[in-house]
Amino acid sequence: MSQDKFALLGNICYSTGPNKIHTIERGYLVVSGDKIVGAFDTLPDEYSGVRVEDYGEALIIPGMTDLHVHAPQFPFRGIGMDLELLDWLNTYTFPEEAKYSSIDYAEKIYEFFTQALKASPITRAVIFSTIHVPATRILFDKLEASGLISYVGKVNMDRNSPDDLRETTTTSLADTELLINEAKNYKRTHAILTPRFTPSCSDDLMKGLGDLKAKYDLPVQSHLCENPSEVELVRELCPTSKNYADTYDRFGLLDDKAIMAHCVYLNDDEIELMKVRKSFVAHCPQSNINLASGIAPVKKFLELGINVGLGTDIAAGASLSMFRAITDAIGVSKLYWRLVDEDFHALTFSETFYMATMGGGKFFGQVGSFLPGYEADVLVLDEKNSGVRRDNLLERLEQTIYLADENVILIAKYVAGKKL
Ligand code: GUN
Ligand code: FE
Questions:
Q1: How far is the CA of 64 from the centre of ligand 1 (A)?
Q2: pLDDT for 59
Q3: Are strands 155-156 and 194-195 parallel, antiparallel or unpaired?
Q4: What is the mean pLDDT of the chain?
Q5: What is the rounded average pLDDT of the residues 188-208?
Q6: Residue whose CB lies within 8 A of the most ligand 1 atoms, among 67, 68, 69, 70, for a mutation test
């Protein structure tokens, strides 16, 4: 069967790296099957017969990857922001997550969550569920039906957790393996190992997850160095580990398919380890503001060539908006520069747009750009009110993202070449 070929016509903007956004006014984005052929000023002769979807003056940009989000926390976004991480988890988060022992509750909330994700600029996401197998199955089913592409992890927790949200080590590993095998029946939804964070996971559990990783060649997601009290707790819990990052690495959990959320307080050895292992940092600026966690030195990570993407971290982050994540990342980096280290340069718009698209997309392969061969994840955006529209495309893109709360409409969304 020949591949479906088509072209999208509009004002095209995409990253080719952290420091370059390529723009084409009224250009053609040619797609063949699930892949980008390329972005062109004029339609190449060999594609002259293809269907052209003309989006007029709209912006055409790559889809965004949310590299870190907790689906079960969707209902309590925007409340309970008066505490720091460990108290926030015990007071608000764990009681909420315990509710997912009910499949009726999971059914209701995961439907809301999936619909919100589908309506957003997010085309790919890496998602935590809870410890519960039936609820996680529901989330798998809903995401698969949505057309989005995602990784979903059943959370592992066997210590320092309330009775109704704590597994035995054996059950945790057996349930994880069960879902790993069930996930093979899905096309767009994939399993990912999800030790919640070191305080919730015994060494035996971490070792078992390392074994599952080796057996099934799976990716991993977790949290790392988010908050000072958390880092101190890990030091007490793991006296023989070199540092927090080592509590994962010693069990083989850090590699180029690992995502570590936050990384606010990495020491130099841990930064070096993240670089050597080619692991991903999920930078979650709104979460870091809300829980007063701190500011991750993301500019340094980028300069060292560490993989970085952006996460909403619902519900510590209140907003599911990746546009907000972009502008929050720029904002907190400016505070870091002003208040913490004047030798540090603030993040640019180009760098944060890259992180939201290509940087996080890299976790999924060639995703998040319109370079030839990339998967065709595409957003078509326009201003609700075009009265403020700038002539310069780069300025227009930047303004559209900064004014997203009030002035953007998502006209169309394609995931791997398929229009949702
Ligand atoms: N660390 C462990 N669990 C969580 C969580 O649910 N949210 C955040 N922000 N940090 C965590
Ligand atoms: Fe998180």
A1: 22
A2: 98
A3: parallel
A4: 97
A5: 98
A6: 70
- The Cα–Cα gap between 258 and 219 comes to 6
Q: Note whether 158 and 169 are within 8 A (CB).
A: yes
Nearest atom, ligand 1, residue 284 CA: 9
| Ligand 1 atom at shortest distance from the alpha carbon of 316 | 9
* β-sheet with 220-224: strand ranges across: 220-224, 258-262, 280-283, 307-310
Confidence of residue 385 (pLDDT cuts 50, 70, 90): confident
Residue to mutate, 93, 96, 234, ligand 1, most ligand atoms under 8 Å from C-beta: 93
DSSP letters spanning 257-324: TEEEEE-SS--HHHHHHHHHHTPEEEE-HHHHHHTT-----HHHHHHTT-EEEE---TTTS----HHH
Residues 357, 349 contacting (CB under 8 angstroms): no
**pLDDT score, position 386:** 83
pTM of the model: 0.98
Selection from 58, 9, 18 nearest residue 361 by Cα: 18
Tell me the C-alpha distance between 80 and 375, whole Å.
38
Place of tokens 């991480």: 85
Nearest ligand 1 atom to the CA of 287 is 9
| Strand-strand pairing, 35-40 and 220-224 | unpaired
For residue 336, the CA-to-ligand 2 centroid distance in Å is 21
What the block records as the tokens of 356 is 């939201």
Mean pLDDT across 1-28: 94
| Ligand 1 surroundings by CB, under 6 angstroms | 70, 85, 89, 93, 196-197, 223, 226, 287, 313, 316
Give yes or no for a contact between 347 and 29, defined as CB atoms under 8 angstroms apart. Answer: no
Q: In the prediction, which pLDDT does 389 show?
A: 87
pLDDT score at 2: 63
C-alpha to C-alpha distance for 290 and 117, rounded to whole angstroms = 21
Instruction: Pick the ligand that lies closest to the CA of residue 229.
Output: 1
* CA pair distance 206, 223, nearest whole angstrom: 14
Closest ligand to Cα 127: 2
In this model, does residue 230 exceed pLDDT 90? yes
Looking at all shown ligands, the one closest to residue 291's CA atom is 1
Taking residues 232-252, report their average pLDDT: 98
What are the backbone angles phi and psi of residue 369, rounded to the nearest 5°? -140, 170
Question: Could you tell me the pLDDT band of residue 76, with boundaries at 50, 70 and 90?
Answer: very high
**Dist CA 123 CA 118 (whole Å):** 8
pLDDT at 1 over 50: no
